[in-house]
Structures are given as C-alpha cells and as structure tokens.
Amino acid sequence: MMKTVVSSKGQIVLPAELRQMDEVEKGQEFDVERLDRGDYRLVRRPIPQNQGAIDWLLACPRKDYFVPIDSDSTDTL
Fold first, then answer.
1. Is residue 70 part of a domain?
2. DSSP assignment, residue 51?
C-alpha cells in the first residue's frame, strides 16, 4: 500500500513506482467507481490498438517514405 494526497485541485497522483510497474503514461484514461463511503475503485481504460501509429509513421527514418493519397477513398487502389 502507498500513500498519496489529494491536491487543491482535487487531483490524486499515482505514485511513480506504480506508474512504472503498470506502464501508465500521461493522457491515459481511468474510470473511477464509488464502492462505498470513502472506498473507490480505479480502473485504467483499454488503450486503442492503433494509438501511437501516427507518431510511429512520422518517425520513419527515410524522408518522404509515406506520401498522402489524393483520394476520398482507397477502394479504387
């Protein structure tokens, strides 16, 4: 068990050790459920499978490797 404090803005910080163990990154979403008075459950929402795909593509080492397609649909390709 670890201790954390509610900030003046009502925010609760997950301790760094827990974030590292579970690979929690900024911007990830959680659901909070009130179980009983003073008891809460925090559950991380699933990360979309394609999250980070654009950053990965933009990091391609070869310039102009990916080019935009001038089409409303790729069905005709």
1. no
2. T
Measured CA to CA, the distance from residue 6 to residue 26 in angstroms comes to: 18
Cα dihedral 63, 55, 21, 2 sign: positive
Domain-located, residue 32: yes
Task: Count CA within 13 A, CB hemisphere, residue 33.
Answer: 6
Give residue 29's domain range.
16-58
Instruction: Look at residue 4 and tell me if it is in a domain.
Output: no
Query: What's the rounded Cα separation, in Å, for the pair 7 and 37?
Result: 20
Q: How many domains does the chain have?
A: 1
Instruction: Write down the pTM of the prediction.
Output: 0.55
pLDDT in tens, 43-61: 999 877 777 777 777 777 7
Distances from the Cα of 10 to the Cα of 5, 6, 7, 13, 42, angstroms: 9, 6, 5, 10, 15
